[in-house]
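Ticket #4471: complex job returned nothing on first submit. Input attached below:
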Amino acid sequence: MKKFLLIALALLAAAAFALPASAAELRIAQVADISSLDPHKVSDVYSANVIRQIYSNIVQVDEHMEIIPDLAESWENPDDLTWIFHLRKGVTFHNGDPLTAAAVKFSLERIKDPATASPGATHLREVASVEAVDEHTLKLVTKRPFAPMLMSLTRYETAVVSERAVKEAGADYGSKAAVGTGPFKFASWSRGDKVTLEKFDAYFRGPAPIDTVVYRGIPEDATRLVELESGGVDLIPGNFPNQDFALIKESGKFLTYQTPAMSTLYMGLNTEIKPFDNRLVRQAMNYAVDKQAIVDAIYFGFGAPAKGPLSPVIWGFDPAREPAYPYNPAKAKELLKEAGFPDGFDMTIFSDNRTERRSAAELIQAYLSEVGIRAQVELMEWSALLSTSAKGIGGAFMLGWTGTGDADGGMTPIYHTANIGSSNRFRHSIPALDALLEKGAATLDQAERRKIYAEAQQLAVEECPLVFMISQELLGASSKKVQGFKLYPNMITPLYGVTVSE
Amino acid sequence: MLRYFFKRLMFLVPVLFGVSILIFSIVHLAPGDPAEVMLGPAATQEDIANLREQLGLTKPLYVQYGIFLGNALKGDLGRSIKSNAPVMEEIMERFPATLTLALLGMTFAIVVGLPLGILAALKQNTWVDALCSFLALVGFSIPNFWIALMLMLLLSIYIPILPSSGFDSWKNLIMPTIVLGIQTMAVIARMTRSSMLEVIRQDYVRTAKAKGISDRLVLTRHILSNVMIPVVTIAGLYFGHQLGGVVITETVFSIPGLGRLIVDAIRAQDYPVVQGGVLFFAFCVGIVNLLVDLLYAVLDPRIKAQYRAAK
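Support reply: We reran it on our side without changes. The output follows.
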């Protein structure tokens, strides 16, 4: 027995001293494993993060969500409908094929093809034609003047894939093969567990400083944290549990990352039903809720009351904006009285079962009751909530909006009259706002665009077919070995340039 | 015996058929739509309609079921909506982890639970008995995710000797094995104890002792072989239970198993994976039940005799 114990102890000791992974490896913990590495087939942020390392886009965004060159070195608009992109020369795919305008054309047309059923097709809906003018010149013609075009081309859904790899792999593209022009190439995927990438030596900006990247899917918050603390992973990019962040930050043992998120949380109102058709009622509800208290309660203080329809990191956000409808229950009661509801009314808040949204709904319920509005919270399955609210839900609904990173993507889908029946779940038509959004999308002059969207944001706040809630914050942490990591507001962060020291 | 085995195997066919109808109906009648989940809140009605068409969701339900059943009989469970990979391939990739875990958990439960129960019965009403019963009670009543977190805290952070997640080496398996097996261990310990106490008082045990057979031989030949029958029943039942309970363990320790595959698929409304996965689970539980029945025959001569008579 003693001998056995000794052996067991020796084994455990050996385990403890097992060598850590090699220095040039970066191990990242995400909430879930990827679903596929075919950028034209996925719609989850965890796959998107890995896709971002393997593929390049025509253009990209930096950490301030400003457009920067990627495969295209420069671009110009000979007229309002035409975009000419001059592609870099000497770029190769991981399989050795050269990147040409024809290769980019193949990718864009693959996304647009209904047979692909790409979730990203919506980003190219304004594209009328794609043409390879010569080997390194791509011409894109839009159906109408469309300023957000560049932002659409930065999306991971519009990444450029290798035509040969797609055709060779067939239905297995994305699970057994994934070939792009990015700084890392696909090495292996152990489904449900982890995906491994290797440095691509012929990357057009030069090889990355790290050799290997491992993305692991660790669904439990606590487990991810234990892995970071015990050195099992080096980096948790975003999705860091809010309740543990302050503690990790104070400990001083880790590097922490914070950035406002692109997404905002709101409570939508179906304005087709009474009394949400009354603007005074909607404004009263906006005043009745203490958003900062909700940020503190459910996000542990990380986040801020929304300043309107757009998060501060979205291109086109008006920096002059103040939080929309600061907490003022007295004013709310006054407005309700003016609207003819001195004793309040009954209503239902629909939410899916995510803890944060459910808790937010319950807190809103409590605040509304203080001004006499009797709300009840009803839970729905996520996709049922999406489809029911698109068709017109019987009350208010908790939802978030992320958009594309551009004011157009942040507002047009949910406010424009044309989208009633799908993403305009308020089912509310504001003709003046429609006009502004259309003008904003059609104006290629960026300074002019900003002015138009500033006006649009103000109008949306005044009309408020929703209760503006919270601009969320993204949190991340890494071991001190990791240098040069920046958390992007869209949660999709390039790892090129990140180093891992001994 | 072999004929009995095949006869029982045939019984599995209607069971699986029933399960397939049940799971197909539940999956398709429950609210929600994979196209909606995949395309998210920004989707237009046309996008959703197009994706539904591509996924074959616009056909009438009975046609969809017919296609599903026809392909399933050929061993083809379709392709995942989320990853586009063949479902059978995903299941086969994930199953080894789940099976390993379930077998290890059961081994742990038996190796620890059985001696604990025997010890408690032999030392009935002493502090040993009290301790064993206490351990069994604790093992049964503490939620296993809590045990998982405490083990992680202890063995990954305070005394960093074990990795807290993943599925790379045997070290990854130690904590999940304990967490998965501890409840079954407790049940087996309690079952063994009470069953032992019953058997010890039987006439044939007294007779054996009176004949002067050594205590050890009485225990192994006369007592344990009789104690084993209820214990095997419980272990068999709990094996199915463990296959289900593996979901929590797989999630907490981030192990790429079948349980997590199905839970993730339910979240994403990935119909083919849910259907295929549940059908496969049902098949496994059926096989385990069958094996347990066969084990009775080995343990209990009376049952073996019945099989012979049935021939």
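Chain A touches chain B through 57 residues (CB under 8 Å). Closing as resolved unless it happens again.
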